[in-house]
Amino acid sequence: MKKLATTKRKFLKNFSKAFALSFIAFAFQACYGTPRDMYDDVHIYGTVTSTATNAPIKGIRVSIVSDNISDITDDNGRFSIYAYEIMQSYAIRFEDSDFGKDGAFMQKDTVVQRDTLNYSREIPLNVSLNAKPIHRISF
């Protein structure tokens, strides 16, 4: 009986140590995160505005066509995405993702080049989108 109690105590002691170590590792990862990848990144950022009003547009999905990397513009029309540095150019797509809450806008595709001579890791990109035409049905 005494041997069983001692074994049980050792098990609980080892289990609590393992649990505490796991909790510390989880807390560290939650606070500091883990690196997304092993490459240096290029920061593509800017503002999306309406061509007609020059007002910022909220809810536009800005994505890199070749990767699964995207962002949605905020209330001020700003976006910020990070792309892999190994690419020389980036095909960027702007598409309305909020289903016309602030008006419907046409999709726009553009290509930006990275400044490889200056080893720039920042690409500012400001874009204006045209409103989708309204089709009226008359009876």
Question: Can you tell me about this structure?
Answer:
There is one protein chain. The protein is of the alpha/beta class and 139 residues long. It has 2 domains: 1-34; 41-129, Carboxypeptidase-like, regulatory domain (Immunoglobulin-like, Sandwich). 22% of the residues lie in helices and 33% in strands. The chain has one helix spanning 2-32, and strands spanning 41-50, 60-64, 69-72, 78-84, 89-96, 108-113, 122-124, 127-129. Strands 1, 4, 7 and 8 form a 4-stranded mixed sheet that branches. Strands 3-2-5-6 form a 4-stranded antiparallel sheet, with no helix packed on it. The chain is elongated and about 90 Å long. The relative contact order is 0.19. The mean pLDDT is 81.
**Distinct helical segment count:** 1
CATH topology of the largest domain: Immunoglobulin-like
Helix-residue proportion: 10-25%
Number of strands: 8
Number of domains: 2
Shape annotation:
elongated
Radius of gyration: 25 Å
Keywords:
4-stranded mixed sheet, Immunoglobulin-like, alpha/beta, 139 residues, 4-stranded antiparallel sheet
Helices and strands, with pairings:
Elements: H1 2-32, E1 41-50, E2 60-64, E3 69-72, E4 78-84, E5 89-96, E6 108-113, E7 122-124, E8 127-129
Parallel strand pairs: 1-7, 1-8
Antiparallel strand pairs: 1-4, 2-3, 2-5, 5-6
In short:
By secondary structure, the protein is of the alpha/beta class. It is 22% helix and 33% strand.
